[in-house]
Amino acid sequence: MKSLSAALALAVPVYAGLRFPCSTLTTQRLDPVVQPGSNPSTHVHHIVGGNAFNASMTGDVASRATCTTCQMANDFSNYWTAQLYFKHPTNGSYIKVPVLPVQPLLGGSNGAQAGLTVYYTQFDLSKDNLKQQKITSFKPGFRMTVGSPTATSSQQVGLTYQCLSGGGRGAEMNDFPTKPCSGGIFTSHHFPACWDGKNLDSPDHQSHMFNTIKYNGFTNAPACPSSHPVRMPQVTYETTWDTSKFNSMWPSGGKNPFVWSFEGSGFGTHADYMFGWKGDELQKAMDKSECFYDGCGSITKQQMATANLCTVKDMVGEKVEGWLTQLPGMAM
Ligand SMILES: *[C@@H]1O[C@H](CO)[C@@H](O)[C@H](O)[C@H]1NC(C)=O
Ligand SMILES: *[C@@H]1O[C@H](CO)[C@@H](O)[C@H](O)[C@H]1NC(C)=O
């Protein structure tokens, strides 16, 4: 990652979309995209964003939310991934892995509490492609997922793990690191950027979108196909899982002791997106070429101290923290 960091530092000004921190909103067993109305859903999620988050979410989310844990004050979207757990190598108990705010390669986390960092890029990290192509915002009610908890082999590009150590992020891998990482485990989830132009969702929550990105990382999506002709922002999540305190319990040579909340394979890493920007705020940001890092001028930002006050109640009412003899919802 040194070369990317150096390249970014040289590329002044840098402009290519939005990047902002969102603090943790809640960690519970709900999934309004894949299992709407189910309380609880099958596995635990780590969720950030607006307080309209609920077991079921329809229509214009932004009209119901009154606060958001994201730095962009008019972004009431919800963003979530599975929660990571440590599975004790000898007694088999599980404990939730804490989340650290992402320390971006440039800039800081701005006072975020845990959470994840969200990107809406127009091309890649250092340029936009607005001269070639309009970037169309998602519409109210839009939702999508990337990846699948049942995957047992490598899925599409952009779903990666990195082993943080000594300030570096290391190589992007498709499965969990096989050795302890002194700085934690960094996960990335890149969503596809081509939309069919019609459906806010689809039965598998994926086929209304299409991925043309061929490589891991922030690379531009090649042209969208005629089946999915509308170019949307490239949405990415980055999360830092603080696995370091469990490294002393990882026996030398033993297998990776970290599991997602659905257990499964490391290839099962996945993420969910529920659009919830107010009005045309995201479209306005995507129409500009100067809006990376600084929030696009016209986009209203809030202090993370304010964002951190936004909460939702525990709607499931089960223990997800501390030592657990089984993962919530997972029968032995
Ligand atoms: C969540 O859904 C329940 C049941 O439909 C509803 O009563 C409640 O007001 C909703 N909460 C929010 C924050 O939208
Ligand atoms: C497993 O080990 C951990 C760490 O020592 C301990 O806190 C937990 O209670 C143990 N679980 C069981 C079921 O013994």
From TrEMBL:
Q: Name one Pfam family in it.
A: DUF1996
Residues of the signal peptide: 1-16
Question: Ranges for the DUF1996 domain?
Answer: 31-277
Kindly indicate whether the keyword Membrane belongs to this entry. no
Q: List UniProt keywords, sorted A-Z.
A: Signal
Query: Which parts of the chain are coiled coil?
Result: none
PANTHER family tied to this protein: DUF1996 DOMAIN-CONTAINING PROTEIN, PTHR43662
Which protein is depicted?
Answer: DUF1996 domain-containing protein
Biological source species = Polyplosphaeria fusca
